[in-house]
Structure formats: structure tokens, C-alpha cells
Amino acid sequence: MSEVAVSSLESAAGAAVAGGRGRSGRRTLVARVGVVVLVALVPLALGTIDTEGQDFWLQAGVFAFAAMIAALGLTLLVGGAGQLSLAHSFFVAIGAYAYTYLSSATRGTGTTIASSIQGGFGLPTPVAMVGAVLIAGLAGLLFSPISSRLRGIYLGVASLGLVFVGLHVAFNAQKVSGGFNGRDVPDFNLLGFAFDTSPLSVLGVGFTRNSKLWYLGLACVVLAYVYYVNVLEGRPGRALRCLRDSEVAASVLGVNVVRYKAYAFTLSSMYAGLGGVILALAYHHIVPDTFGLGLTVSFLAMIVIGGLGSPGGALVGALFVTALPLLLAKYSDSLPFLAPTGSGGVTAAVAAQFIYGAAVILLLVFEPGGVAALARRVPRLASRLRRSPHSSTQKEAA
Q1: Torsion of CA 130, 133, 136, 138, to 10 degrees
Q2: Which pLDDT score, from 0 to 100, does residue 3 have?
């Protein structure tokens, strides 16, 4: 066969592969856009079907959106760069308190702790949101000299100290955090549109505060997801994957190990900061106890259940871990094995921890790749099932 024929065959094969990838990419894009559209229609559907219980579902969704954004940052750090961090709740707290402080006006009302003087700059809320993300990223950058020199469990233990330092500061810096009693979070306002309790009707459906926050959270999740995918598919993503597999090999290939470790930790912290802003808006009043070690463990469970390094898996894991205790608490009266809150028995929160703890163990044993790996198996299984009748028919004919 001539060289011209060989090159033409190679070109045709390459074009076929590229065409297949293009069609697959278009189908994936259409599916993702469809999911976003369906999620955007949820407040309208709930306002029509379940007007009394819609606020519960919408608030649960906003909590899930906040967790999704922060989980994307952690899976980028742990699954994408191979760096273990136990300080994610610390950076979430920085985002929440930074937004609250930057957007609040200074006020003083009395001498008790509950009415202590709380500071603020009174900035526009969009500026405060961007500032909170940048401050969280700066905190991650300041920790990068440590994170760039440690790896594995040593980095995890070193980062764990940030959680306890953050809690101590939050309990005592009353002007910033409000101390034990916490402080109110100003409502978000974008170009004159307030995400508050003011009445709003769309297509005859009343929109509550949580309905408005639903769209703000969804927009932030979409932007965070798109940026994450662009990072993975670009040069930084290739460098981080190489760094995750082997620091020595990455250094030999010309990857600046220290620089990219700092980059990964900084970007992960910014994701956590944005998640903290949405979480603060969802709570409307934040206290230091919210950002303890339990929150960090929950984030780790999210990315392990979803699959390390998978952005879609992080979203699914965040939804599962966030929504499960809320659902159990809502239907605790109908579930005989759940005890009332404060009774000392197995409450909804405890049962949720048992369930997603069992899910983590089962996935680590049977499918370490998490939900993302299980999702990749479904098309393969479907294709095998489609091919099996055809192949059996051929064998019978032979």
C-alpha cells in the first residue's frame, strides 16, 4: 500500500474519531443545558403544585447549591491536584463572614453580647461577594507556603489546625462575627433587584426569598462548573493531573510544582469562599458553630461519594449529603426508626450521618470511583445489552 493511501486512511480515521467526539460532545452539552433548564423551572413548578411546602424544598436547594460550589473546589484540590485538605470549612467561613462584614453597615445597639457593636463597610452586595471570594483566595494563598511543602496526611493535619484557629477567632472577634450569637446576613441586591422577602409574582406564581436565591445559587453553580471544566481541559488541568500522579515526574516534565500547588489551593479556597457566600445568604443568620470540623467531614464525604476529580460527581455528592438530613428531618414523624430531635436517640441528623457514612464505605470497597464511575458504566452496560441479542442471533445462524 502506498504512503499516500496510508496517509489518507489515517486522515479518514482521525476525522471519524473527531466527528464521533464532536457528536458526543454536542449530546453532552445538550444534556447539561437541559438539566439546567429543568432545575430553573423548579420554583415555578413548586409554586403551582406545592405552594405550602415550596419554601422547604427551595431552601434545601439553595443549601445544596452552596455545597456544590464548595465541593467543586475541594474535588479540584484533592482529586485534581492530589492535595488533602481538612480546612475547607475554614475557607467557607471566611467567605461567609467576609461577605457579611463587607456588605454590612457599622452599627452599635447596646452593651450586651447579643447587641454588641458589629462592624462593616457597607459595600454593594455584588462587590462584597467578589471581595469575599478574593479574601478567601488570599487566605489560601497565604497557606500555600505550607501546602506546597507537604503532602498527604501531613498536609491534612496541618490544614486541620486552620479550622480550630478559625473557630477561636469567630467566637471572639465579635465586631466581625458577632461572637457566639452570630450576626445577620444582608440580603443580596443586584442592580436594584433585591433577593429578599419583598413580594414578586412571575407567571402568576409568587416568588419568595428562597425562590430568588434559587436562581442566584443556580447561576453561581453553572459559572463554577464551567470554569472548573475549562481549567481541567486547559494547560493548568494537565499540570495538576501530572502533579497528582507524581511530583517527580511533573518536575521532570517542566511543571513548577510549588507554583501549581499554590494555584490549586488558592483556587479551591476561592470556590469555598463563593460557597460560603451562598450558604450565608441561605441561612440569613450565621454563627461560628456552623463552620466546625463536621462541615469539613461532610465536604469530604461529598467528593468521595461523587468520585474524586469528577465535577459532576461532586455536584451529585453535594446534593446527596446536603439533602438527606433535611429530608429525614422533614419526614421524621413518618419514619418509625427516627427519634425526635433532642431526645438522645437516633435523630434525623444522626441517621443521615450513618447513611452517607455507609455509602462512603460501600463505594470505597466496591467502586472507588464513586457515582461518576457508576455513571460511566451505565452506557457500557446498555451497549452490551444492545449487542447481545445480535451476537446470539449470529451464533444461532452459524
Answers
A1: -60
A2: 45
Spatial separation of the C-alpha atoms in residues 332 and 325, rounded to whole Å: 10
- Whether residue 355 is contained in a domain is answered as no
In a domain, 207, yes or no: yes
What DSSP state is assigned to residue 107? Answer: B
State the DSSP string of 46-97. Answer: HHHH-TTTHHHHHHHHHHHHHHHHHHHHHHIIIIIH----S-HHHHHHHHHH
- Full domain range(s) for residue 164: 25-295+305-312
Rounded Cα gap, residues 244 and 75, in angstroms: 12
**Nearest residue to 271 (alpha-carbon basis) of 65, 84, 127:** 65
Cβ pair 320, 327 in contact under 8 A:
no
Model pLDDT, residue 101 = 94
Look at the chain and count its residues. Answer: 398
pLDDT at 267: 95
Q: Which three cell numbers stand for residue 6?
A: 496510508
Phi, psi of 280 (to 5 degrees): -65, -40
Collapsing DSSP to helix, strand or coil, 104 comes out as coil
Distances (CA, A) of 189 to 167, 182, 281: 29, 22, 11
Number of domains the chain contains: 1
Phi and psi of 286, rounded to 5°? -115, 145
